[in-house]
Specification:
The protein is mainly alpha-helical. The chain has eleven helices and three strands, in the order H-H-H-H-H-H-H-H-H-H-E-E-H-E. The chain has three domains: about 40 residues; about 210 residues, Up-down Bundle (Alpha-lytic protease prodomain-like), CATH 1.20.1510; about 80 residues, Cation efflux protein, cytoplasmic domain (Alpha-Beta Plaits). Strands 1-2-3 form a three-stranded mixed β-sheet. About 0% of the residues have low confidence. It is found in: Membrane.
């Protein structure tokens, strides 16, 4: 391979060592901001100078090393969610607490969510490439969107029901009945959720499934804690604290899933990849072969959780067709094994004065004179 060797742009000179970073940090608030920026620049420069094969092998080593941990986190979450669903539903039904009912409903949908993600992940790996040429990476994103709409709808019902109970309340007592067993059951479920949160935290970057489970456990911790407090408050202080807690929890879940839906829609709609990743692709493409005169266009955008990458390179008009094809194919193959890249497309041109590929130019039609 006639690639460009070394560091022709002198990027390595921009690296800051630990002593220089420490000196920046000691300058106060502005210095700490510069230090954080410089650490990011160090990571970017190191990524640019790292060979593409090294990027691929490092990602494979991380995935292989974390495979057992990912399985443990996944199956433990599935099993624990099933057990916690039974416990929390018992607590909600036995106490009649709306706050605990909301946490119980959330636990029921945790099982559905975990099962759906597990099934979609397996389905995506077994799709027929003739029927689904782009693969099944977007299936998990579509499943997240559908589940998000369902969670939003269910929690809207909880908000309406809790509001109705608060408005139509006619009990003479200022407090609800106290059920210690129900609160203990939910507290035990909270402890298990915390352990699952810790387990999933270490493997969330290796699997989109684990990342979704980690977010779910993270969200459940404050929700369940708040549910216990508001249920106890309704039994010891004022009855209206219980329906108020259910309304607040349901609203928080709706807002959380609204943000998740926005992010997932961006993945389906083709949101641009992070700027650092695009810079990596530009640099690696430019350094890939000495016969590349320039890089005309680089696009990287989401197709589900993975990226589609488009690169337009410029070669001399005298380059033989076989060579232009072989070099561009080699670059495409290298790009497609980078972490999180689902598909890459490399286009070869001999100049840069043309309009960008795939960009339609619409001209306004002249209105014909009226007869």
């Amino acid at each position: 391979m006639d690639s460009v060797d070394g560091d022709p742009f002198g990027l390595r000179a921009g690296l800051k060592n630990d002593s220089e970073l420490m000196a920046l940090r000691q300058r106060g608030r502005k210095g700490r901001k510069i230090e954080r920026f410089q650490r990011g620049q160090n990571k970017l420069i190191e990524a640019l100078l790292k060979p593409m094969d090294k990027h691929t092998s490092d990602a494979q080593e991380v995935a292989e090393a974390s495979r057992l941990g990912v399985k443990i986190a996944l199956y433990s979450s599935l099993g624990a969610n099933l057990a916690l669903c039974v416990v929390q539903l018992y607590a909600a039904i036995s106490s009649g607490s709306l706050s605990l009912l909301e946490t119980g409903i959330d636990s029921v949908f945790d099982i559905f969510s975990s099962g759906l993600l597990f099934w979609l992940h397996r389905k995506a790996q077994r799709l027929d490439v003739k029927e689904w040429p782009v693969g099944g990476s977007r299936l998990e994103t579509i499943g997240n969107v559908l589940f998000g709409f369902l969670m939003t709808a269910v929690n809207l019902i909880v908000v309406v029901e809790s509001t109705r109970v608060a408005i139509t309340h006619d009990k003479e007592s200022d407090v609800n009945d106290f059920h210690l067993e129900a609160l203990v059951a939910v507290a035990a479920a909270l402890g298990v959720k915390f352990l699952l949160f810790i387990v999933c935290h270490f493997f969330r970057k290796q699997s989109s499934q684990i990342e979704m489970l980690w977010e779910d456990h993270r969200n459940d911790l404050p929700m369940n804690t708040f549910g216990i407090l508001m249920s106890a408050g309704g039994s010891k202080l004022r009855w209206w604290l219980d329906p108020l807690g259910a309304i607040i929890i349901a609203t928080a879940i709706i807002l959380s899933w609204t943000r998740t839906l926005y992010r997932q829609f961006g993945l389906l709609a083709g949101r641009s990849a992070p700027h650092d990743f695009i810079q990596l692709v530009i640099y690696k493409a430019l350094m890939f072969h000495k016969d590349f005169d320039a890089i005309d266009t680089v696009r990287a955008y989401h197709s589900g959780p993975n990226y589609f990458v488009e690169v337009d390179v410029v070669m001399s008009r005298d380059t033989p067709l076989w060579k232009a094809h072989d070099v561009s194919q080699q670059l495409q193959d290298k790009l497609e094994v980078l972490p999180n890249v689902g598909r890459a497309f490399v286009h070869v041109d001999h100049e840069t004065s043309h309009h960008p590929e795939h960009q339609r130019v619409y001209e306004k039609e002249k209105r014909a004179p009226s007869p």
